[in-house]
Design a protein that fits this description.
With 381 residues, the chain is an all-alpha fold. The chain has a domain at 1-175: Orthogonal Bundle (Farnesyl Diphosphate Synthase). The protein contains 17 helices and four strands. The protein has helices spanning 12-15, 18-40, 45-58, 64-80, 87-112, 123-131, 146-172, 178-206, 214-240, 245-272, 275-278, 284-288, 293-298, 304-308, 318-330, 333-353, 363-376; strands at 7-8, 82-83, 116-117, 120-121. The protein has a two-stranded antiparallel ribbon. A two-stranded antiparallel ribbon has the order 3-4. Strand 3 and strand 4 (120-121) form a beta hairpin. Helix 2 packs across helix 5 (87-112) and helix 5 (87-112) packs antiparallel against helix 7 (146-172). The longest helix has 29 residues, at 178-206. It is globular and about 60 Å long.
């Protein structure tokens, strides 16, 4: 195999529609699962079934993170005129970012004790359902036995571990110069470490180990959401496009504002949004005792005793939850969190509008990030 060299940039989105890129990414993700299948089959039908079921549950995502990587790389390589990777190689690396996302989701579901995602049984729930005699994997109504739950959660943890290994293999085998590959792997290591630290801090908040002040809550959201969802795809794309360091600094700033605005908006929708539109349990954050900016604000108001009575109550009834949400609205927690969202969106908009500064981001990159802000943060579901 010849040594990798820097290439003249080609831009997939210049001649391929976003729908086509989306379809190609789905094929790449399927290929990642397929290439490990012969290995897992050596360890018996139960293990092979776990991998197959994991592949099935990984389908259907919006592919926000891999699409961001592909489109950011196309925009930056167009501006630099260079790329260390071909279109196919970029798509392969992007598929690994989606596997990373799904691995984090699997472990999140175990940590949070969730059996459902997007209104359907998740991998934990499906494995638990299969464990129950006479129960359909599609039956979302039955509570699993302790043995079934243990089987499901154990399977999700182990499947997530396999996915982390797969992600590292993809980047380690990338046909790029050694120095570039080392940078890609360093970025992956940083993203995993910081995301795990964010998850650990989130658990510390939920278990009342850490003080639930606004600063801690926002720092946790930054590490848990912004780093791997936005900073990682953008920084991988920048490395592959041989982008200048000044762009990377601006991309990191943009990722922080975008990630925080996205998480704060998600918290708002989970508490105050229309459950029929966003498809989530409308009171799961209250039931789980999730420490959000909404709760941090409410703690400082006279409404807190009414909210505290419901906060963390796993048996929370609809009527009691509705009263807590009403109290949160009454104290202005909804307006407070929307104000924080607006602050981060405004800061992002200012950065993206800055085209006079030295080393400003290329126009196509700024357009991409502006569209992502409108898509993810300016949503109602």
């Amino acid at each position: 195999m010849s040594a990798p060299t820097v290439r003249a940039a080609t831009s997939p989105s210049a001649h391929v529609s976003r729908r086509d890129v989306h379809a190609r990414l789905h094929r790449e993700i399927e290929a990642r699962f397929a290439e490990r299948r012969p290995v897992v089959e050596r360890y018996g039908p139960d293990f092979a079934h776990l991998w197959q079921l994991t592949a099935e549950h990984a389908r259907g995502g919006k592919l926000v993170r891999p699409l961001l990587l592909v489109e950011a790389h196309a925009a930056m390589s167009e501006a630099t005129g260079r790329s260390w990777a071909s279109e196919d190689q970029v798509l392969e690396i992007a598929s690994a970012v989606e596997l990373l996302h799904f691995a984090f989701l699997l472990h999140d579901d175990v940590i949070d004790g969730d059996l459902h995602r997007r209104g359907e049984l998740n991998l934990v729930g499906a494995l638990a359902a299969e464990h129950e005699t006479g129960r359909s994997p599609h039956d979302a109504r039955t509570t699993p036995s302790p043995e079934g739950l243990h089987w499901g959660q154990s399977g999700a943890i182990l499947a997530g571990n396999l996915l982390f290994s797969q992600v590292h293999l993809v980047l380690a085998r990338a046909h790029v110069p050694h120095e570039v590959r080392a940078r890609l792997l360093d970025l992956l290591d940083h993203a995993i470490t910081e995301t795990v630290a964010g998850e650990h801090a989130d658990i510390a908040l939920s278990d009342r180990v850490a003080r639930p002040d606004l600063e801690t809550i926002l720092a946790t959201a930054l590490r848990k959401t912004a780093t791997y969802s936005f900073a990682l795809p953008l920084r991988l794309a920048a490395v592959l496009a041989d982008a200048p360091e000044a762009w990377v600094e601006r991309l990191d700033t943009a990722a922080r504002h975008l990630g925080l605005a996205f998480q704060l908006q998600d918290d708002y929708l989970s508490t105050f949004g229309d459950a029929a539109r966003h498809g989530k349990d409308p009171h799961s954050d209250l039931r789980e005792g999730k420490e959000t900016a909404i709760i941090a604000f409410a703690r400082l108001t006279s409404a807190w005793p009414r909210v505290r009575a419901c906060f963390g109550d796993r048996a929370l009834l609809q009527e009691s939850a509705a009263r807590a949400v009403e109290a949160l609205r009454g104290c202005g927690a909804d307006r407070f969190v929307l104000g924080l969202v607006a602050e981060h969106r405004e800061a992002l908009g200012t950065l993206l509008a800055d085209d006079d500064a030295p080393h400003a981001l290329p126009p196509r990159v700024r357009t991409l990030l502006g569209a992502l802000d409108a898509q993810l943060v300016g949503r109602e579901s």
